[in-house]
Amino acid sequence: MYAIAQSETIDASRKVNDLQRQRLEETIKLKEINVKEVEAKEMAIQEKVKYEAVKREVEYVKECAEREAAQKKDAEINAFREAKEKEKLENVLLGPLQQYQKFEWEEIVSATSSFSDNLKIGMGGYGIVYKCSLHHTIAAVKLEILSNIHHPHLLILLGACPDHGCLVYEYMENGSLEDRLLRKNNTPPIPWFDRYRIAWEIASALVFLHNSKPQPIIHRDLKPANILLDHNFVSKIGDVGLSKMLNSESSAISTLSKDTGPVGTLCYIDPEYQRTGLISQSSDVYAFGMVILQLLTAKPAIALAHTVELAVEDGHLADLLDIEAGQWPIEETKELAVLGLKCAELRRRDRPDLRDHVLPELQRLKEFADRARDMASNAQLAPPNLFMCPILKDVMEDPCVAADGYTYDRKAIEIWLKEDDKSPMTNLPLPDKSLIPNYTLLSAIMEWKSGKQ
């Protein structure tokens, strides 16, 4: 009996031990399951965070792609505009001058609603300007004397009513250079390379006026308010109809004319003209120098020459430049500032010749700016990094998110997974080989590609 009881006790003890061991194993398995559940939840959270980050990046890339498409379109427009401007200039030099159209006074009164204040768009030194539509053409009407001069960067005279001294000019959609430099109505800033070009355009128009035959013409009221910009930001000088025609019998070195009444705007008037009453082409050069300094700084003209001169001498010109214009090239911009200061010298004899010195320098700087603009445009057309497959190093055709949270081209990652179970980016084992299509990124890539065409 004792042996039987002892045997049963041993069996019971063995069963208890087996039961305890089985329970311990189940406890360990339960802990492992809990750990895996926590890891799975953490991985899900990480995947969600990655998805949100990718979503934000895609939205940003989409915005960048839209901007890049717009910039490419602007570059194409600029190239077309330059070709047209060259054609216009050739026509001016080689072809006959176009005659202006004559309008009846009643047409102008009707088009301006009897010169309604609601159609008033500005006031020059010699008359009020009204916006209207004449013969299905948007135009600007101004009461002043007539002008028959034509140049790509002089405001085009569409027609006139001679009996009432009323002029009809082309309408310039982007208003005056002054308004754009001051960013009136929160308009976008003018990029620095366009400002280089505008300086050259204004100088070329002034050279044309100063060398007109049979008599040279002086503008006498050059300023940013009288420089207008069309829809492509091509600049044209206005108020030319009031320019002073000089006697061609004057000195070949410097053409001077006695003026009996003050004409012009404070801060742009030639100091020697104020002192002596003698007007010359150099008077326009002084005003042009002030315009250059305003193109660089977008600051009021009063005391501007002195401020820029000190900044150049102290090596602080960069602090004075208009930061809204972008990343100015320091050396070339310094050259332009020095050129503006030379033009704005107090004495006529210290100012450079516009045709022989100023215009060639501006031509060189304009060509530099054009190259910089084209290089920037080409760089902006490169695909964003987010569009590139880490395996192919090329734009993805079918982007998919792998288990490591990174996006790859589907064909490239499928070939990779056939040979390797590790992530191409982290070199860590992939939990699985599932691929999730990234439709948002695909849409952005397709939109970017369509913008390139």
From TrEMBL:
Residues 382-453 form the U-box domain. InterPro entries: Kinase-like_dom_sf (IPR011009), Prot_kinase_dom (IPR000719), Protein_kinase_ATP_BS (IPR017441), Ser-Thr/Tyr_kinase_cat_dom (IPR001245), Ser/Thr_kinase_AS (IPR008271), U-box_ubiquitin_ligases (IPR051348), Ubox_domain (IPR003613), Znf_RING/FYVE/PHD (IPR013083). Pathway: Protein modification; protein ubiquitination. It comes from the Eukaryota. One of its GO terms (biological process) is protein ubiquitination. Its EC number is 2.3.2.27. ATP binds at residue 142. It is an enzyme of class 2 (transferase). It holds the Pfam family PK_Tyr_Ser-Thr. It catalyses: S-ubiquitinyl-[E2 ubiquitin-conjugating enzyme]-L-cysteine + [acceptor protein]-L-lysine = [E2 ubiquitin-conjugating enzyme]-L-cysteine + N(6)-ubiquitinyl-[acceptor protein]-L-lysine. Keywords: ATP-binding, Kinase, Nucleotide-binding, Serine/threonine-protein kinase, Transferase, Ubl conjugation pathway. Functions as an E3 ubiquitin ligase. This is RING-type E3 ubiquitin transferase.
